[in-house]
Amino acid sequence: MLVGIDGLKNSAISDLVLRYSPQYYFFVANATNVVFDHLNIAGGSKSTNPAKNTDGWDTYRSTNVVIQNSIVNNGDGEFTSS
Q1: What backbone phi and psi angles, to 5 degrees, belong to 46?
Q2: Beta partners for 13?
Q3: Is residue 70 very low, low, confident or very high in pLDDT (cuts 50, 70, 90)?
Q4: CA nearest neighbour of 57 among 16, 28, 19
Q5: What is the count of structural domains for the chain?
Q6: Could you write out the DSSP letters of every residue in 17-47?
Q7: Going by DSSP bridges, is the β-strand pair 32-42/9-19 parallel, antiparallel, or unpaired?
Q8: Beta bridge partners of residue 5, listed in sequence order
Q9: Can you give the C-alpha Rg of the chain in angstroms?
């Protein structure tokens, strides 16, 4: 995990470039109304072995978590949000 968040409310996290986390990139717990904006995440493997369990976000007891204007390319696939 790269970033752990607990209890964040009415906030924005933006303009980050994250690379090659050994697990998920964000763990978000007990959060409400959090926006992730303009993030660029790449978590492919640097070796011949495929990347595994490189989720972008794991959320726990959180509501209204929004991911927008971001690019996520990890071991689970790729998506672009707008």
Answers
A1: -90, -5
A2: 36
A3: very high
A4: 28
A5: 1
A6: EEE--SS-SEEEES-EEEEEEEEEEE---SS
A7: parallel
A8: 28
A9: 13
The pair of three-digit structure tokens given for residue 34, joined into one six-digit string: 């959090």
The answer, yes or no, to whether residue 11 has pLDDT greater than 80, is yes
Q: Is residue 72 within 8 Å of 39, Cβ to Cβ?
A: yes
| pLDDT for residue 74 | 73
pLDDT at 45 over 80: no
In terms of pTM, does the model score above 0.85? no
Mean pLDDT throughout 42-71?
Answer: 83
- For residues 67, 1, 42, 10, the Cα torsion angle rounded to the nearest 10 degrees is 20
First-to-final CA distance of the chain? 24
Q: What is the span of the domain harbouring residue 20?
A: 3-80
Mean pLDDT of 4-28: 91
